[in-house]
Amino acid sequence: MSDKILPVILCGGTGTRLWPVSREGMAKQLLPILGDQTLLQMTLARVAGNGFGAPMVIGAHAVRFTIRDQVEAVAPEARVVIEPERRDTLAAVLLAAAIAAVDDPDQVLAVMPSDHLIRDASALSEAVHTAAGSVRKSGIALVGVTPTGPSTGLGYIKPGAAAKDGTSPVERFVEKPDEARAEKLIAEGCLWNAGMFCFRAGWLIEAVRAVEPDTVEHVTQAVAGMIEDLGMWVPGKSFGKARAISFDHGFMEKTREARVAPGRFRWSDVGDWDAVWTESDKDAVGNAIRGDGFAFEAKDNLIHSEGRLVCAVGVEGLAIIETPDAIMVAPREKAQDVKGLVGALKGADRAEAVEHIRNHRPWGWYQTMDLGERFRVKRIVVKPGAKLSLQKHHHRAEHWVVVRGTAEVTVDAKVSILHENESVYIPIGSVHRLANPGKIPVEIIEVQTGSYLEEDDIERIEDEFGRT
Q1: Which domains are assigned to the chain?
Q2: Exposed, middle or buried: residue 416 (CB in 10 Å: 0-12, 13-18, 19+)?
Q3: Can you tell me where the transmembrane regions are (predicted)?
Q4: At 7, is the pLDDT very low, low, confident or very high (cuts 50, 70, 90)?
Q5: What is the pLDDT of residue 360?
Q6: Beta-strand (E) ranges in 250-348?
């Protein structure tokens, strides 16, 4: 049995309550919501050293390259595991246990979300080690957080009498009570369920087998068929047969071997814009401003701007969120209702509900700047050393202008190096590629002209990312 705890970071959530910044296409854990690093990177930093081993990150296929790049930037020793499809948290946790058990069934894992905020890493480490110490033989131990107020958006844990090891048996779970019930639970000594728990890999597999035998079979088969792909590990297709159910509903509500260790640290699930305001630095009258924002005779507002100047005049307690393609304004006290707004947008078939205007790709990103009849203007940024697929289009021509960095451009049989302020024309049907041979990002403006300008007018001839 390893003395080091294996941190498992779950990175598959969608974070729709932080719309329009967080969307299904790029959720909050992959964004710098509260600092220069993303929430995923901040989570990885908290489990560096202090008795923890190299972490395992379980993430979604759609954003696998973004996850890989962010993990490599702060924890290059980490193992990135990509779910072939979303199957909720029971399958994800079981996947981590099955992978760990291949090497050591007695390995103790500490599972935690990637989108929470904890400022005190040492206090977190102390709580996790207490929980881990209680499961060396059997059982599962959660980390519970002392509530700071009667939250209606969180789950609660009722602990029993404390044991010598610092943990208590879990008497019951209560999911998202109303305010009166939440106040009563706090008075009874209940803790917030922070979604963090420890267990021994082999024990969990057998414990889940008792309640979900088919899911265990599908996940273990998927691990047996796991392959490495572009620096990430991908389980076999049988993973998609696992039951889609949360870990709480699929297992925690059924086990009788749950314990809880108290976490003596400030914690936030960053679950809505009011939580972001609470955790942000503020001016003398309570305004939290990120980006190009200005408050005049206004107080207690959250202003988040990703581009344009956003001004607040004579207002109080608002969340004002600006992105390139959407603006959301709401009272902070109504922040939980943003999830309902996203649902209504989906019902109205608005693409903005789930997709960002900035589209991330394994080589970088692109963003549409203007669109009209028979033309589209894009801003394209390519990471150092990266290249797009070798491709051609059947309905459009393209003009590329380099505005930053050095670009290597292939057009049919000719390869050229373009510097800032230089341009190239790609006729319809020409085989072409854009690459960045330099040490800084290369940025180009692409002007498309033609009868059809959608992304499916791409015939890929060669692609290092395996796309067709």
Answers
A1: 6-268 (3.90.550.10), 273-347 (no CATH), 358-462 (2.60.120.10)
A2: exposed
A3: none
A4: very high
A5: 84
A6: 258-263, 267-268, 288-290, 293-296, 302-305, 310-313, 318-323, 326-331
